[in-house]
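Problem 12. The chain below contains 308 residues. Write out its predicted structure in token notation.
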Amino acid sequence: MKSWKLVLPILLAATLLALSGRASAAKAAPDAGAVPDALLTAPLTVPASGEIRVAFLISPGAEVVDFTGPWGVFEYVFVGQDYRKPFKLYTVAASKDPVAVSGGLTVVPDHTFADAPAPHVIVVPALDSDRLAPAALDWLRSVQQDADVTMSVCNGSFVLAQAGLLDGKTATAHHGGYGSLRAEFPKVKVVRGARYVEDGKIATAGGLTSGVDLALRVVERYFGRAVAKQTAFQLEYQSTGWMHPESNAQFAQHPVDPVEHPVCPVCEMPVSEKTDLIWKYEGKTYYFCGQSCKDHFMANPPRYLAGK
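Solution.
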């Protein structure tokens, strides 16, 4: 059986041929409504070495989809006639001890904050803030200054906000986190219904798989749309959200909160009217999906009700 290294160039050549055929067929019907090629509007410069280092911040409870999705995208980028892999990927954590992330997966970090190579791209997934080492925020504040882009996925934007990196900036999150992000970090302008949001050197993605599209957007910023499309094709990824940041528009509106189908005022998730997690405030009964949401709301109701 041929090794993967021998088969890979053949597969990639076939991919390029297929994409070429698609491109020819699509000349009369370009991507409708797509934003312009990011290499033309928001380019990132590939280092002289040709290696783009991508650091993935890991901490207990990290959401698996948030970091493995972008990891898979960067892993499958090939450029040049020799099909070179330009992205160097590694995980970073407070220590090299195994880290239990979501879904029962355990990850052994490649580096600590002390010995991690300086990254060009930083990926921050949703993390358990109660178990996040303070040193993680210090590391983020330090390395993001020289990074090309710092991207969060899902509620990883809360981590960036904790580090003060979203002050005065626009950002997004998982649709269940819009209200909390706005309430807990009033200096952040929260954008609802966006697949991703870019503001300077900071980029934030919506929930979970939105990170795949933001990663493809980063690929496009370095290498152009053709390479991003080639990567998506190789992954058999069907979404075109990286070219359509408005594609999360279904989450733009505040959910309706009828009495028979109450919505948690903190995370905006549907709640059973039979739940015991209720609290009356100014003559209205509020229903909560969990104790944490109830505690946050009771601590400061106005910040969650403002704008609703």
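Discussion. The two ends are 62 Å apart (CA to CA). Students who got a different answer should revisit the alignment rule from Section 12.3.
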